[in-house]
Amino acid sequence: MKRTALASLTGAALLAAGVAVLPGWTEDKTRPSLPYTDTTRIAEGAVVYETYCASCHGINLEGEPNWMDRKDDGYLPAPPHDETGHTWHHDNELLMRIVRDGTEAIVGGTYKSNMIGFGDVLTDEQIASVLGYIKSTWPTEIQEIHNEINSRTLP
Questions:
Q1: Which residues form the Cytochrome c domain (predicted)?
Q2: What residue numbers bound the domain in which 49 lies?
């Protein structure tokens, strides 16, 4: 009986130790932050936006017309990044991944998107800066909602 209990405890301890080292279990669970109040990073993000994003999403973040209706080729037009779009509905981590890897890589399957990944061109810091620039243009109440989305989606 003692041997069975000792074996069970040893097995449980080994299982707990193994689980503790699984990827993600011991990592710091913090969401990437967007520097939307840092004027230097906002200015850097504005340059990145103008260079890489404005040709599709519009110089004023307005997106393409009829952005919720698929085109004849099955692709959606580029959405606006101002408060009228859905960018602020997504947490920082997902936004970073979309810019870095592209929408098709994130959504998967047969989803059609012209949003390519910029991970080969932009650093994570530049991606955070451009997203910080975008967020800096939103009304305060939208920024606060976005902050709440980030706080409640932490694992």
A1: 40-138
A2: 32-152
CATH assignment of the domain containing 75: 1.10.760.10
Domain assignment of residue 129, yes or no: yes
- Model pTM above 0.90: no
Radius of gyration over every alpha carbon of the chain, rounded to an integer in angstroms = 21
Domains identified in the chain, total number:
1
- Domain presence at residue 65: yes
Q: Is the model's pLDDT at 69 over the cut of 50?
A: yes
Q: How confident is the model at residue 103 (pLDDT cuts 50, 70, 90)?
A: very high
Query: What tokens does 70 get?
Result: 């698929």
**Residue 84 CB coordination number (10 Å):** 13
Amino acid type, 102: G
Q: Which two tokens stand for residue 5?
A: 């209990």
For 57-83, b where at least 16 C-beta lie within 10 A, e where not — what string? Answer: bbeebbbeeebeeeeeeeebbbbbbbe
